[in-house]
Every structure is written in C-alpha cells, then in structure tokens.
Amino acid sequence: MSGEIAEAFARAKARGEGALVAYAMAGDPDLARSVDVFAACVEGGADILEIGVAFSDPIADGPVIQAASERALKAGSTLKRVLDEVVPAVRARCPQTPLVVMTYVNVVMALGEERYAKLARERGVSGTILPDLPPEESAGLREAFDKEGLELIPLCAPTTSPARAERIVKDARGFVYCVSVAGVTGMRSELPANLSERLEMVRRSSPVPVVAGFGISNAEQARVVGAHADGVVVGSAIVRAAQADGPAAARQVCAEIKRGLKR
Amino acid sequence: MDTQTAPGRFGRYGGRYVPETLVPALLELEQAYAEARKDPAFDEQVAQVLREFVGRETPLTPARRLTEKWGGAEVWLKREDLAHTGAHKINNTIGQVLLARRMGKKRVIAETGAGQHGVATATACALFGLTCEVYMGALDVERQALNVFRMKALGATVRPVESGSRTLKDAMNEAMRVWVSQVEDTYYVIGSAAGPHPYPTIVRDFQSVIGREIRTQSLVAFGKLPDAIIACIGGGSNAIGALHPFLGDASVRLVGVEAGGHGLDSGQHGASLTLGTEGVLHGSRSLVLQDEHGQIIEAHSISAGLDYPGVGPELAHMAKTGRMEVRTATDDEALAAFYMVSRTEGILPALESSHAFARAGELARELGKGKYLVINCSGRGDKDVATIAARGMPPAIQEKA
C-alpha cells in the first residue's frame, strides 16, 4: 500500500482535478453507519478518506466535530474498534481509496505507538494525522511509523513562519496539511486573503502534495483554495450533513466540493 | 536544584503537545519569559506588586492548638489564604499579566475551576487595565456563584463551558481552542503548573515565592528548615510553589495530598498521581486519569479546584522519583478537616487546603515531637461555604468539635 496516497493525488491530477480529502467521524452515529458515510463520501468523489477517531478532549476541533466526537464515544468507538471494524469495512467497500486516521496523540499512546503502527498497516491505513503532535515531539512516533511504512502527515498553520514551514515539510510523508485559518476545525464564511500565497510558499518547498483544510465547506471556497493547493480537506460540513440527513447528504457535500475542484 | 532535564521536560514528563498554530506563540512566550527573567527590573516589578498589592509576605502562623491536638510535630501554617483575593493563585497571575503587558498583549484569557484563578486573573487585569475573559465549566459556574460574581465585578467576562463534564478540564479545552483562534493578540494565563511548555516552568517560578518565604520564615520562627511540608494537589500550582524551593534539601519531606473524592475504589476521585497513567492532556505529557483507550476520565472532588484529571508534569516527575510522597483525602475527610481547622485555629480553609489538613495530623504524629511541620494553607474557605452548608453539618463533626 506504500505510495497509495501519492497515487490518489496523481489520479486526481491526471483527471484535471484537485483532490478531495473527506473527513468523517468513525462511530458517528455508530460504527456500522459511519462506514456508510465514508462509502458515500467516495461515491461523491472523495479521493482520500480521513477517518476521525474520537477523543474526549479535542483541543484542535470546533463545535461540530467536538459534538461528533462525543456521539462516537457514546456509541463505543475506540481506536482499536475503528481499526478492527471500521477500517476493514471501508476498505472492502472502497478498495481504491487511501485511508488516513486522524486522532489525538493520547489515543495512539494508549494503544501503544508500535502496536498502533502495526495494526493500522495490517488493516489498510496509509497515513495518520495527529493535530496535537508538533514535529518537536514526533521523533519516537515517527520511528515507529517509518518501520511500518505508515505515513505521518504533518500540519502547517497560518502562524508557522516560513523557516519553520520549510523544516516541517522537509520530512513530510503522504501530504502536508495546511491549516487555512488560525483556529479550530469548522466552517467559515471567509478564508484569509493571504491563504493562496502561503499555500504556494509551502508547495514550493514540499516534496509531497499540499492540501488546505479547516473552514472549507462549499464549491466556491474549494475552487479558490484548490487553485493554489493539490487538494482540500472538508470535515465539519460533511459531519454536519451526515448527522442531519445521513450518508446521502455527505455524498452531496463531497460532490459539490468536487465540482469546485475541477480545473 | 532543578528537575528540568531538557527544555520543557521533567524526566519523561512535560513537553509541548499542541496544535501547530500555537507552537509559534509558545516559542514567543518562552523567549519573552527568558528575557524577562534576565531583567532585574522585571523581577523587582513583580516583587513590588506582590508586596504593595498582594500583601506579601504572607505570614507563617504557629498552629498551637493543632499542635496540641495532634500531639506530634510542631505545626505551622503558611497563610496563602491571606494573600489578596484569598488564595495563592494571585502570585502567578500578577507575574503572567505583567509578562503579557511586557509582550504588548492587550487581551487576556484564562480558565478556572473553583474560580480562584479566574478571580486572580481578573484582579491582575483590572489592576493593569487589560481585557479579561474567563472560561469556566458550567457546573463550576453553578457551584462557585460567589467567585463568578467577583470576576464580573472586576470587569471580566465569564464564559460558561457546556461541553464534556462541564468542569475545569473542559474550561481548559475551551480556553485553548479560543487561544488557537486569537493567538495573535491574546495572552493565555494558565493557572496551574500544567499545560504545554513553558507554562509549567513559568507557573512554578511565580509560585515558588511561597516556598522561598517558608525557607526564610522557618529560619526566623524556629531556627531551621521544616522537617516536612504538606500541600494539596489538583493541577498542583500551590504544591509546586511551596515544595520546589526544597527539592535539594534531603532533610525536608515533601508531601502532596490529592483528592480521594468518594474513595480511590469508587472511580470518582481526582488522584492522578496515585492512580493516573502516562498520557498527554492539555499540551503536556504527565500522569492522567484515563481509560484503557486513552479517553480522559472525568475527575471528581468536592473541591472544584481539585476536580482535574491531570497534574503538572514536574509533580509527576517528583512523585515517580520518590522525592515527593503522595497521599489522598476523601471528600468526607476534607469536610471534617474543614470544620476541625475552623474550630481549632479560627481559620476557614478552602476545601482544597482542607485536603492537606486532612492528612497533616498523621504526618505530625509520624514526625513526632521536636519536629516541625508546615501546612500550606493555599486559600480561604469563604468561596466554599455555600457548598459546605448545603451538605448540612455532619453529626459526627458536631460531637467531635
């Protein structure tokens, strides 16, 4: 599965599109039905799936994903169960789509860094995003991931200086996740004016594709941001649609974003 | 003596586990703090405000009737309850708000549990003319109505947090989320010796005024260092402040008392040093109350200030290396101690501090006559009287007292 993420970006590019990384919360509203949401996202055109694993104290997330996290925990979601039940089921229904797990460092530490890396690879996960693990703290975990060929996807923020961004992307695996706004996850009516310059700046030094996330919820935003990135991440808009109207609504959100990403 | 083994690390604990958006702000804070520490004028400014406004130094009071009652070591009380705003929390907020001002920040946010840190932050902000917003669990807003009013009277905005357990940990999550969104112009005053580097160090340094005063006051009062010092531990800011200056004094026993809540077997407590496991919460690696899947367990204590599932990383290191002894006191024991101290010494201790008093009698007897025990009375109990009165006075207390 190595290079699966790179292939997904290449396929989108060959079709003349930016890639859509679709986030949904595993276990929301329950483990089985969240699989339907992931599959619907792929039907809607998602190129990569980001599988959220709930944490009780999600300091990088806004209200929509925070609430989804609470629902998933109530439904019995754990990292182990997501790897055992959700990942294989999504993999079976969407065999072409790379899967990336997004959770918090404590959840991975509790399972064990090496055990997580091994299980994740066995079940078909290609990469992992940990929003509370800056590069200064990631050495041990990165070693465990590298051994299994699991890609640790780094984040850049609007507050990250150019010099720091260069250091961050130098060792990037999979893709670089550029946080578009100084803030938590969630839909925004406006994105910062200098976002395109920052994306281009990160892209110039990055050996892997660069995506923008946080705040993107419609086709127009995807079009504007997608012009300066290899793709976008959409989370809260999908989670909210799925909660309100089920998998079909999540598919619609993805399809709309995908329209915005056509070049 | 310093237990910091690498920048921001205390043995295995500490570090900086935060969203990338905050890392530059923490680097900026680390640098600004390092520069401030090198500047004698900053030190003098903090000392002056503590002297003129806070009322330092706080007394070291002989507790003659407790000494007699327990029949062991001579007992002395470090009276942080007499600091302005009624608790040790003000030592840290004065320092951090002066630091914020030095950094050119106009707006301050804070989280609070019992409300003491919120009141202390609101006070420092009022004193120096900064805007202040305090995040507080909705449950704590209900439990601590008096402190909510005090914060508002001081001009702060109090924002109730409805997520999770609606207590201190959720207030801290929310304050961090808000900080992520407004990091450019906002200073986050963390109230405990927890959080991402450099906060545990900053809070420890500002609170260490407690222990430094205990050192000099002991020498004057009884001609030697204490044989033991005991303090309550939630996040641990009063404990690290009282104990840290004695880390290198092998003759001084350092004792921390955690919230035993309904009992250690009940699953409802705040004993993260005693029963916690290694994890990452609120930006640092420490001992936390969590389930096997890494989900943080809601802590419980009768005291809103100890109702926290984590603990400062330096205290975790001190506990694991054995430099600090850790004990626990239940809700009921803390309540009994509250009445006992009130009636024996004429001091209403905060419910937090009552946990330290609850274990101090045994310690005094263990030490024996001719030894000296200092109890850190971290705050006054006025804020807790509604909580305590609502329970009714236990008959056992009425008889004993």
TrEMBL record, chain A:
Superkingdom of this protein's organism: Bacteria
Gene Ontology MF, one: tryptophan synthase activity
Pfam families for the chain: Trp_syntA (PF00290)
InterPro entries on file: Aldolase_TIM (IPR013785), RibuloseP-bd_barrel (IPR011060), Trp_synthase_alpha_AS (IPR018204), Trp_synthase_suA (IPR002028)
Entry keyword set: Amino-acid biosynthesis, Aromatic amino acid biosynthesis, Lyase, Tryptophan biosynthesis
SUPFAM superfamilies: Ribulose-phoshate binding barrel (SSF51366)
Pathway: Amino-acid biosynthesis; L-tryptophan biosynthesis; L-tryptophan from chorismate: step 5/5
Active site residues per record: E50, D61
E.C. numbers: 4.2.1.20
Cellular component GO terms held in the UniProt record: cytosol
Catalytic reaction list: (1S,2R)-1-C-(indol-3-yl)glycerol 3-phosphate + L-serine = D-glyceraldehyde 3-phosphate + L-tryptophan + H2O
Functional note: The alpha subunit is responsible for the aldol cleavage of indoleglycerol phosphate to indole and glyceraldehyde 3-phosphate.
UniProt subunit comment: Tetramer of two alpha and two beta chains.
Annotated family: Belongs to the TrpA family.
Protein name (database record): Tryptophan synthase alpha chain
Protein's organism: Archangium gephyra
